Amino acid sequence: RLNLLTQCFAFGLFYLCFRLLALERFLFLAALSVLKSAGSTHDWVGPPNPLSNLRPIIYHIPDNETELEKRLRNLRQETEDWNHNFWAKQNITFSKEKEAFIISQLKAKGLTLRDEDGRRRSLSSEEMATFYKNFLDKNRVRHANYNKEWYRRNFTITLLMARVTLNSMWRTVTERQSSKKNGTPTS
């Protein structure tokens, strides 16, 4: 009964932290949006998210953004959000399973999580290596699927970047040709 109460409390605390971090991310993004609207011409990079360990990015939106540039920016943002969600979930799962492993190993030795001085007990590197290997083995397919999707997205982003660059170069060349015909100097 006490164990169930402890689990409920831990879940409630975890949920509260998760919601606060979501609020923190929202406030960060809102603050950056305000900064961007003040005339920034660069992307904004925030501090690492405590759950995913990834830095959020607010991408600059140029005034004369083309449809192709918009597609690229949106895909980059969607990929960043997808990446953040994957690693936040993965890191939470890892932390929970690691904690459960440590507790179970200590319990098997007849030890509690804290020593008589109140310090947290730990396991040896060899003992933890067992957990790390098992965790990686158990999540092998998930990580392989993540990598495939990550490569697919990055390949698409790279192709879009190449198209945006070529379109920009073409636009520059045609504008120069047009201005030469009209006798207007180019900048």
Automatic annotation (TrEMBL):
Keyword Protein biosynthesis belongs to the record: no
Membrane topology of this protein: Peripheral membrane protein
GO BP terms in the entry: intrinsic apoptotic signaling pathway
One Pfam family this sequence matches: COA8
Principal subcellular localization: mitochondrion
InterPro entries: COA8
Compartments, record wording: Mitochondrion inner membrane
Keywords on record: Membrane, Mitochondrion, Mitochondrion inner membrane, Transit peptide
Listed GO CC annotations: mitochondrial inner membrane
Protein origin, superkingdom: Eukaryota
Family: Belongs to the COA8 family.
PANTHER family assigned to the protein according to its UniProt record, in alphabetical order: APOPTOGENIC PROTEIN 1, MITOCHONDRIAL, CYTOCHROME C OXIDASE ASSEMBLY FACTOR 8
Protein name: Cytochrome c oxidase assembly factor 8
Organism: Oreochromis niloticus (Nile tilapia)
